[in-house]
UniProtKB/TrEMBL annotation:
MF-aspect GO terms: DNA binding; DNA-binding transcription factor activity
Pfam family for this entry, one: MerR_1
Keywords, in A-Z order: DNA-binding, Repressor, Transcription, Transcription regulation
Boundaries of every HTH merR-type domain copy: 1-70
Lineage: Bacteria, Bacillati, Bacillota, Clostridia, Lachnospirales
PANTHER family listed in its UniProt record: MERR-FAMILY TRANSCRIPTIONAL REGULATOR (PTHR30204:SF69), REDOX-CYCLING DRUG-SENSING TRANSCRIPTIONAL ACTIVATOR SOXR (PTHR30204)
Gene: cueR_3
Name of this protein: HTH-type transcriptional regulator CueR
InterPro entries named among the record's database cross-references: AraC_E-bd, DNA-bd_dom_put_sf, GyrI-like, MerR-type_HTH_dom, MerR_fam, Reg_factor_effector_dom_sf
Keyword Repressor appears in the UniProt entry: yes
Gene3D superfamilies: 1.10.1660.10, Regulatory factor, effector binding domain
PROSITE patterns: HTH_MERR_1, HTH_MERR_2
Length: 275
């Protein structure tokens, strides 16, 4: 058995660190002597070596706790290290994407001056249609998770482009989304809704490019609606004319999305509201 000072020396962990790890419940002394002093054994030593390794690889205390509670040997450790490696690679990819955006935003970059596309605004009457759909709460990017199951349910009855209905008036991290695929007739499938989507009058435009810039298209639609004394109502609609595939995302610059916002005549003209 080792006293805390001796244990600190053989593990290269400070006494302060050992006490902290005890508080966190990841490295507690196996015994205490009659005076209450901490005593560590060889099993504690092996755990301390594991903790030191993980800390050196930038594992957080929460991650270390998770590893220790599920650790059964070197084979298990290999899985944890591979998962950590994948997380780091994902983070690096995110940082590289951010660096690219920063470079584009610098003077002389492709995004310098915030030059945006021109949007042609049209009023469209949308007819009633039958759709298979699934409604969920989540991130906007979660849409891709459900598209495959909808097309499987629709089978050879699917036609036209998939689209999303957004029921929130504001931007949300847990958006209320209904993903739809138009079909030629009623379809029955477990976990999938099939219903008639009523027609409506909409204000519409086409956005060419990635989904991260859809806000510019929405602004153009809202500005145009108010100029025409039209009241936007939900749900808005995003029709994916050309987007990522089921496996590969492709070049976002080539995406084509039609945005539609249902509208109705304002009871009081916008000019009078401002006055």
């Amino acid at each position: 058995m080792y006293k805390i000072g001796e244990f600190s020396k053989i593990t290269s962990l400070t006494i302060k660190a050992l006490r902290y790890y005890e508080e966190q419940g990841i490295l507690c002394p196996s015994e205490r002597d009659k005076n209450g002093y901490r005593l560590y054994n060889d099993q504690d030593y092996e755990r301390a070596r594991l903790i030191a390794l993980l800390r050196g690889l930038d594992f957080s205390i929460m991650e270390i706790r998770d590893v220790i509670s599920n650790y059964g040997g070197e084979e298990d450790l290999s899985y944890f290290l591979k998962e950590k490696q994948a997380q780091i690679l994902e983070r690096i990819a995110g940082e590289k994407a951010l660096l690219k955006k920063l470079e584009e935003a610098l003077p002389g970059g492709s995004a310098a001056g915030i030059i945006r596309q021109e949007y042609d605004i049209v009023i469209k009457e949308i007819e009633e249609m039958i759709v298979v759909s699934t409604r969920f709460r989540g991130a906007y990017s979660d849409v891709g998770k459900y598209i495959g199951s909808l097309y499987k349910a629709a089978g050879n009855k699917s036609f036209g482009c998939p689209f999303s209905l957004y029921y929130d008036e504001e931007y949300r991290e847990d958006a209320d989304v209904e993903l739809c695929v138009p079909v030629k007739g009623m379809v029955q499938a477990s976990g999938i809704s099939c219903r008639k989507l009523p027609g409506c009058r909409t204000i519409s435009t086409i956005h060419k490019g990635g989904y991260d810039e859809l806000g510019f298209a929405y602004k153009a639609l809202l500005d145009a609606a108010y100029e025409r004394n039209l009241q936007p109502v939900s749900p808005s609609r995003e029709i994916y004319r050309k987007g990522p595939g089921l496996i590969f995302r492709g070049n976002p610059s080539n995406y084509v999305t039609e945005l539609m916002i249902p509208v109705r005549e304002m009871d009081i003209p916008m000019q009078e509201q401002k006055g």
